[in-house]
């Protein structure tokens, strides 16, 4: 079992590093081979220079491994430390390869001594000896190029994972956006209506089922036409009016040309619910909720306002009790349409309003609006 540990270590090395190492060794094999052949052909017609080149090549392949590990260790520090560290590394690489070159070319021939070694290294500092520095620089350059692209891949993977988690969270929040108290109150209303008006009870049950079907079919990254969102809001309001009766009125002021515009599903529901719960419900004589949708050039304006308690309410602008409410709506709008589409909230003693803008400049949106208008006209005929 012990003998398998080196193999396990090799398996842990990323494949891209193994490929980079092999390509570098292959490149330097060609480099040494061609250079040595030219040297043999033009200057030194002795076979020993091929052996010297082979030894230098083997040493370089071992040093490349060390350079990779050294670069990986330096990578954790600041850029200044990395530059200083690589300056030292390049110097050490030159000394090692230069000393090996001295040994093969001078030492074995009997030219021994500090002065001979120093003179040999000084000779390598000329143009023909700078390839030792190039070896280190090229190897480090390969490491940083690979690290850069691996970093990009990692960031993309993290971004995709974050996007997936955000989408899952949005869907989860969307599904929980219907206030549980709304369901309980509706069931109590249905129970009351069964004894007095079974036909009205059936209508409320149908409206409630439509609401939950719309909520369950909605997804965080899916857009819906405004006309369908308004149908959902109408069902929600009709159910609330069963509970509050004449105390709650609902008025829609919707630009006919905006009905085909696509918006995030259930984006208006928390705004309306907030008006019901904190504006109209606590007020003895109730009030009116006004939903406005208007187009201003390349922008569409949405507003939900009421004449309820406003700033006198105990808790204002909170949204549903599930904890998502207006905060989730604000985040969804900014995520989809940009920071400028966040909620704008105004509150005073005569009521409050929540509004936002979304862009309307896409040709595809224009076509969807036209098709929706044609569809409505055909139904009217």
UniProtKB/TrEMBL annotation:
- In what residue span(s) does the Signal transduction histidine kinase internal region domain sit? 169-248
Q: Does the keyword Lyase apply?
A: no
Q: Which InterPro entries match?
A: Bact_2-comp_sensor_kinase, HATPase_C_sf, Sig_transdc_His_kin_internal
Q: Any keyword Iron-sulfur?
A: no
Alphabetical UniProt keywords: Membrane, Transmembrane, Transmembrane helix
Q: Domain of life of the organism in this record?
A: Bacteria
Which GO terms label this protein's molecular function in UniProt?
phosphorelay sensor kinase activity
Residue ranges of the TM segments: 20-38, 50-71, 83-104
- One Gene Ontology cellular component annotation? membrane
Check the record and name the PANTHER family matching this protein.
SENSOR HISTIDINE KINASE YPDA
Protein name per its UniProtKB record = Signal transduction histidine kinase internal region domain-containing protein
